[in-house]
Each structure stands twice: as C-alpha cells, then as structure tokens.
Amino acid sequence: MRATRFFISTLKEAPADAEIVSHKLMMRAGMIKRLGSGIYNYMPMGLRIIRKVENIIREEMNRAGAIEMLMPVVQPAELWQETGRWDKMGPELMRVKDRHGRDFIIQPTSEEAITDVVRTEIRSYRQLPVNFYHIQTKFRDERRPRFGLMRGREFTMKDAYSFDRNVDGLKQSYQVMYDAYTRIFQRFGLQFRAVAADNGAIGGSGSHEFHVIAETGEDALVYCPTSDYAANMEAAEALPLVTSRPAAQATLTKTATPGKAKCEDVAALLSIPLQNTVKSIVLTVDADKEEDKQVWLLLLRGDHELNEVKTSKVPGLATYRFATEAEIVEWFGTKPGYLGPINTLKPVKVVADRTVANMANFVCGANEADFHFTGANWGRDLPEPVVADLRNVVDGDPSPDGKGVLAIQRGIEVGHVFQLGTRYSEDMKATFLDENGKPQLLQMGCYGIGVTRILGAAIEQNFDDKGIIWPTSIAPFEVVICPMGMDRSEAVKAETEKLYQAMLEAGIDVILDDRGERPGAMFADWELIGVPHRIVIGDRGLKDGKLEYVGRRDAEATIVPVAEMLAFVQAKLAA
Amino acid sequence: MRATRFFISTLKEAPADAEIVSHKLMMRAGMIKRLGSGIYNYMPMGLRIIRKVENIIREEMNRAGAIEMLMPVVQPAELWQETGRWDKMGPELMRVKDRHGRDFIIQPTSEEAITDVVRTEIRSYRQLPVNFYHIQTKFRDERRPRFGLMRGREFTMKDAYSFDRNVDGLKQSYQVMYDAYTRIFQRFGLQFRAVAADNGAIGGSGSHEFHVIAETGEDALVYCPTSDYAANMEAAEALPLVTSRPAAQATLTKTATPGKAKCEDVAALLSIPLQNTVKSIVLTVDADKEEDKQVWLLLLRGDHELNEVKTSKVPGLATYRFATEAEIVEWFGTKPGYLGPINTLKPVKVVADRTVANMANFVCGANEADFHFTGANWGRDLPEPVVADLRNVVDGDPSPDGKGVLAIQRGIEVGHVFQLGTRYSEDMKATFLDENGKPQLLQMGCYGIGVTRILGAAIEQNFDDKGIIWPTSIAPFEVVICPMGMDRSEAVKAETEKLYQAMLEAGIDVILDDRGERPGAMFADWELIGVPHRIVIGDRGLKDGKLEYVGRRDAEATIVPVAEMLAFVQAKLAA
C-alpha cells in the first residue's frame, strides 16, 4: 500500500471526551471517528486492524470445526418473547417497530436466532455436535457509552453456539472452544488470562472469561502464580484466613468509640490491628407481606470487602438488596457505623464470612452510637453464625487449590465461553431425535469475542508516550518504509521502490510512506499509529549501502546493509 | 472442505411463500433461512457465495483506488435531518429511539454519514479526489418484502462515495467507478448491461444502472444491438416514428363508435390500423387556489404507453397527478373512453407525443360518449400542440443515436452509479479549501452494488430444472468430489483422498462429499446447490484408471484418466 493511495489522518490532540488512553490514541491515530454517542466510523486505518482480528478468529474457529454463517442484525421480537428476554432485558436492548407496528430488536447477541435455526435444521443426533458462529454487528444501548470501542453501543462481536446431545458432549465442545480461544489470543500477541467465571444458575465450572491483561482494566483477576488456578473476582473462592478459632480470652466490653464509625478508625483508636475488627453489612429480603420482610446481617473482617455475587448465592439471599437507613434504625436501634450482631433491637439473620467465623476476641459495633464491643466471642457472647464465603479475595490469600497464594491483576474482558445447557432449547423447544427416536433437548454452549473491543484492550496493554505499539499479527501494517527526500534523491527513490516491491512479493503487509512529509512528522505519525517495524531510507546511509531499521519498542535504530534488509525484517516478523 | 465438517441442508420442496425461482432454489439449497419477513439468515452455503461476491467487489474497488472503511448500521437522525431525508423518506426508512428518546435510523444508505466524515476530514484540495466505500448491512422497511434476497428488508450493500474538487473531477471519478463495475460484473461471470438512467434534477448523463440480464427481471432495458446505446425505460429517448407530418386529406367527421372506449376496439370497428388512433390521458396539476388548478391532456398514439418519468419533465408537469373522473367530466363533459383534444368543455393544456405531433388524419375521442372523430388534423381542426417525448420506447423504434433500431430485454438492477454533485455537500456544508484558500463545495458521486441481491440475480439468470448453475467465480465451491462407496472401497477412499489433497494444494476451492449418501441423492444435492464442476470416483472406473467429470451444464460425463484429472479441472477453471 502506498500512503498516498490510503487515508491517513492523525491528530496532535485527542478530543476532550476521550477519557482513556486507547480511546485517545485511536482517535489521534485516525482509526475511529465518532458518528454519535457510542457509535463510531471505523476509518480505513482502524478497519485494517479489525479485519486482521476477524481473520485470526475465523481461521481458528474454522480449524476448531465451527461453521460460519450470518444471522441478521434486526430480529423479530417474538423470538425474544419465547425466551422471556424481551421482558427481562432492560433498556440496553434496542427495540424498534417496523412500518406495520411489529416489534423487532437490534441484536445484542443471537441465542434466540440460532436456536430458531437449529430447532428446524437439526433433526437427528446424527447431525450433532455442531457449532455455528458469525461475526456480526451488535448493538447494546449503554446508558453511558464511553471509552471509545471499550464501551460503545454499536460493536462487532464473534458469537458461536454449540449444540450437543448431552452434557458430556457440551463439555467437550466447550473445551474445544476454550482451546481455540487460547490459540486466538496467543496469535493476537497479547498477554491474556482465562479465568473461571460465575455462571449463575448452571453451576459447575461452566464459564470462563478471557481477559487482556492491562493495568487500566475494569476487572480484577485472581490467579495463583504457582498453579493454574484463575478466576474472576466474583468467582474466586476465599478461604478462611484463620484456619481454626482461637480460644476466647478477652471479656466482652462495651467501649466508647466516639465518632469512630469505620473499622479503620476504631482500630486506630484502640491500637489494635484492623484484622481484629468485624464490619457489619445489613441486607433486606423483601416478601409479599411487609411483615414477612427479613433483615440480614453480614459480618466481614474489617479489612475485607463484600462480594455481591457470592452474597446472592447464600441460601435465602438470592433476591437481597441493601437495607435502607430506616430499616437499619428499626432493626438495630441505631444508625450505621456502630452496628453489630449483639443486642439487635429486632431479630436478624446473621451470616459470618469464613474468616470472621474463625475469629475470637474481636471488635464489633455495639448497636449504640459511639460505642463498640471489644472481646466479642462466638458461642459465648452470641450464637454460632451461619458461615459462608462472602468476601472478595485479596492479594496473598491462600489459593483454593492449596498450591500457593493468590495474586491479583487487572484485566479487560474480551471473550467469554459459557455452558448454557438447556436454558434456551427448553424455552424454544429445540429438540433432536436420539438413537431411540425420542426427542431430547439440545445442550447448548455460547462463545463470544468482542472483536472491536480487542482493539481497545490491545492498546491499553501496549502503548507508550509516542503512541500505540501493535503486536505484528494485528497491526494495520506490519512494516512501514519511510524514505527521506524521495522527491529529491533518485537513489532514495530507486532503493525505496525496489525494497517496497521485494516486500510485497515476499507477502509482507507493507506501507510505503510516499506522502513527502518531513521526517519528524512522518516518524511521529507511524509511532502514533503503532506500526511495529520501520525502515528508513536516506541518502546518507545509502552512500555506505546501509538502511535503518527501528522496531517500535527500540530505543535506537539498527543499521542494516541494503541487501540484507528484507531477510532482516523477515526474521523480525518470524520472531 | 469435507462435507461432514460443513453444514448441508437441502429440501425437496420450496416453502409456499417462495414465488420466484431464485428464492425457491436458495431455500431448497439451504443457502438462506427465513428469520422474519424479509429477514434471512445466511446459512453457511449462502455465506460462502456472499463472501466471494464481496471479495471480487473489494479487489476491484481497491484496484480502482477506493479506500475501504466501515460506517455504522445505526446512525443519528440529526444527520438525516440536515439533508431533509428524515422527513422526505417514507416508512421504508427504519426509525428507532434510544433509551434517552433520541432518534436514530437503521441505515438504508450512507450519504449523510460519509458527508459527515469528509466535512471534517477533508480540509484541502490536496486531499482530493478521494473515494471511500464500505460493505455493510442495510435495512429498508419494504411494505411487502418478497422474492427472498431480491426484495428483502435487511441486505448487504457495497456503497462507495467519491469526492472531487469540481465537476470534471467528479466525471472522472464516475468513469473510474463505471469501469470498475464493468470489471466486477465481468468477474462475476454474469451477463449484464449498463444502462443510462434518469438522474432527476442533476441532468446530463450522470447516472447508470447495472443490470443482470434475466427474463424474470422487473426492469425493461432498452439497447441498440448495432451501437452502444443503452438506457433504462425511464431514460430511453423515443424518437417520432413518423419523421414528417403528411398532408391533411380526410375531413373531420364525428363517427359513432358505440361501446368502443379503447383505441384497439375503435380501430377494429373502423377497420383502420391502431397506429392511426390517438389516446388521451388527463392529468391535473394542483395549485394553492382551487380555481388555479390546471387540467392537461396528453396525447399518445394508440399503440404507445405513457412514460411517467418523462411526463414529469414536461415544463409545468413536475407535480402532476392523474385526473379524477369528476375532473374529467368537469373539463371534457364526458367520461373517460371518448376524450379528445377537440371541443373540450373547459380549456385544457394539450401536449402531444412526438409521434402524435407528426400524425395526420387521425382518430381521437369526440368528448361525447360513443363518438370519435376521424380525419383529425393539426392546425386545421385543432391548434398545433406542445410537443414532448412522452412515451415508452418499443422494440424496433429507431435508436436515438441514429445507429440502428432499439431492442428491449429484461434485467435485474444490481448496481447503480450516480453523480450527486453538491446535493449533500450543500445541505451539510461539506467544503474544502481550494488553491486560493477559498471554501468550495465538494462534488460527490455515489456507487452502490446490492451484494446479497447479486445472488438472486445470478440464479434468475442461471438455473435449470435440477437447480442452480453458479458461475465458477461466485460458486460456493468450485469443485465437488463425489466418491461412490468410500466406506466400502479402499481404492475409492485412497484415490479420493489423494485427489482431494492435490486439489487443495493446487488452491482449488473443493468440497469432498464424505457424507456417505447414495449417488442419486448426492448428485441431486450438488446439482441443486449448483457447484459448477463435479468429479465422480467409483470402483468401476478406477479399475481402468478412469474418473468421471461432469460440468454442471454438461449433458454427459467426460471420462478422464486418474492422472490427468487435476490438470483437466484446472483447465476447466481457467477457461
């Protein structure tokens, strides 16, 4: 590609609404252009990256035996009503009426559409397993679109759907996709991690998220550096940090802690470790009758944080909400800040985190403003609690597999594999005939990759103060040739054209910057755009038969003889 | 590709709602599957064809210097309000509100979006000319979707937009696209014709349609077999069929023609050629005040048909409508069937078609039920008329270029190139700075190809009673290998695998039918699907070292030695 036949449009400054580095750099590099809130044009430079991402995905999906098709963007509401998602999904589901007043949605995902296809197309067990995928435009009407391609409204997703005869088959199809995803992210050249995720009602290890590692990531990933344990924060199991409960030694004592409503402040006032304090979180479970409403008290160690997903899995708490201040006053007789499990005004259900359950002689609120109890002990001062894993793990926690301690890093979710089971086939009556001619529900899995989101995530992981640093496999161009004074020097022009043609013939995705920009502006553009390999051709070097090579991460140029440059670059690309 | 790793789903019968052959065959061949009215899943077999069509388009667009990008499916209404199309376009424009109640459209085309891009991206004449294109999902809310991909609601279109400094530049960009389209349709392997089209307000020869020739086509294409004249019916100029007016000979005579309201019946009754009769068409042009309303009388030769587009170009008739019966009675004093230009009750404006203007001694209605005038003559019996080209050309008419006579064939419109001029850049203030630093409006062209429609059109042109006959370049597979008894015969299996591998290595897009179907069912499937080249491998032939080749249009198989089959097929593919 010659730059003059392409469209390059770089900006010195990012627009004011670009908050994060990937958004800023993609705007500055002319890869995307805003059309509306959360809606972007993919400019020529950006589309090249998208196509490379798509092609890697396509190759690996095909290799894994998945079959590409294409489902529509606009889908009839009837299908979404069959599965109940028409009602369950909130305003992020974009709804539209046609000229006859019939309801449609702009697809955010295609479980319903594919299930509609297979319920007529798949008749016999002989046609199973099968896995269909498509790479298609999606729409999700985010309340507050932001971060460029990271949280846009219109985006491109690859979504695949597997169908199997039974749960064993589903698990096998799932593993095939898990392995394909691993290859896909490896080929992207990105640091990534697959983590076990919560999969709601299905249970088991039926869901994994694939994250691109980045300090700016929204999600906390939990992993064990000395084993293969990895889970997202919602799913990572927290073991008790005290393995057995010490004996009760201190006496329960009501202690004045005026104005100290937080565990940290109480610990400082009393000169005790924060790990000796217990914090109280009050939840409400509503009932049909107001008088059947339950109030629950969850207890966490002072330095720990509540995990809301785990909380919802405690029997009885599936539909919990946080209590209002009025409810707290009604049940505890005091305002938040001094709450505790002892001497509540009305009875509450107490659940202690695993660690709290093993604590002794601890400090908790006294249900009286400006007072805490010290020396509290289970069994003696209050009944033994219900115990559950309620908290987020923290760095240094023991790994649930017993093979080390946990570490935490930040990630950006770009892929998700999920064992759906019969969630959709049941509602939509998608069955096949088994060997005995009996209809059976199809076992379904779904597998998504956020194609356009990959671009943002890759940049969040790979940038410096000059711009983007693309991995070669998804760079808009692999190599840029920057001739200096091509219009003045016949030698530069001749060598440039020669090398350009040689690279094209070698199948290298090369762009020749023939725009005639000054070297400074030219180099700045390509550093911003993030092409990984740059060759500079100038009269000074040519006199000695030399060219310059600069890798995007290199601090200095490498001088390479003219005749060796092609092989030199090929070696870099193969590395 | 192995058939067992692909998804093949054929039907013996097409669903009842499939009216035309391409729709029936695509449904039967498992290429598309209905999701909703005018909304289709592109099944794996269909998607392969779409991708081949897209790739040919992409290659030729790139070769012509156009630059690929991707504009969103969902676009803000504000842009469409700027150009007035938000109001002007009817219910076929799919409108949608987001969660905040803001208006959006699902794009049927992208003039507004691209003009929004260029009005900020294109600053200087140095950046011109430029041509952006995308291949994207479109939506048009057809009132009555039908004919499968021929008139669907959701479809894929390639639309390109060129921007130039001036009209000369636009004409040049237009020609480049015209030439690219010619190459594209040649590469599709389809019989096609580019015809001049009416381009409304712009005038000149600024618009051409590309049609795939098919007897079932909706459009009539006019061309001159002995010259390069070609136009669609709306745009084809009709010359007078009588070059000069004969002398008046007959006397104007009111003749009884009881019950003969049609020219054909009058001619039969009077034993005169239909070509001696004149038919009357009454139009109304409304005005702000009822009393300023005009009634026009258009005169055509009895065997000719009105061309409504030409009619609207007659000065004064831009906003015409057909007159109501009440208006006809009020102006002519009689009901339709016996109307004419002589003795109208109230004054009407008379326009005669070019042929009628040169007629003498003709027959026309007498404005009295059951009576016609015979022997009518211009200048003598009624004033000389305004003359215009009002009619559709017919087969055998003189070609407007004077180089022969016109013929008419049917076509399916699949592409359109259009010189828009400043239609959009004016409304959206899309300017560039010229050499003198003065802002100038961008001159714009637009160029569309209906990607998914191509599939339907190709089939309408190429099918037989067994199924589809794809041109090789857009066939889902170039070659199918059909082994007979692969599971029983080691020899068949070995030769099949060998040939399959050899073909893959030769870069042939081959599918190996390893499903184990009986030969009859297997052949029927591939004839229905329309793969152009089939190789049959069986024990009987192998004994003599022979295989069978059958071209999709061949009546009989060709016997080819095993060792020569690859070269034989390669020669067929190169043909």
**Please, what is the oligomeric state?**
homodimer
How would a textbook summarize the main sheet of chain A? 9 strands, mixed
Q: How large is the radius of gyration of chain A?
A: 30 Å
Residue share in β-strands of chain A: 25-35%
- CA-to-CA gap between the ends of chain A? 23 Å
> What level of helicity do the residues of chain A show?
25-40%
Q: Please identify the top-level CATH class of the largest domain in chain A.
A: Alpha Beta
Number of helices of chain A: 16
What are the low-pLDDT stretches of chain A, counting only 5+ consecutive residues below 50? Answer: none
Question: What is the CATH topology assignment of the largest domain in chain A?
Answer: BirA Bifunctional Protein, domain 2
Rounded mean pLDDT of chain A is 95
The tally of strands of chain A reads: 31
Q: Provide the number of structural domains of chain A.
A: 3
Gross morphology of chain A is globular
Structural class determined from secondary elements of chain A: alpha+beta
CATH architecture classification of the largest domain in chain A: 2-Layer Sandwich
Largest interface, C-beta closer than 8 angstroms, per-chain residues: A-B, 50 and 50 residues
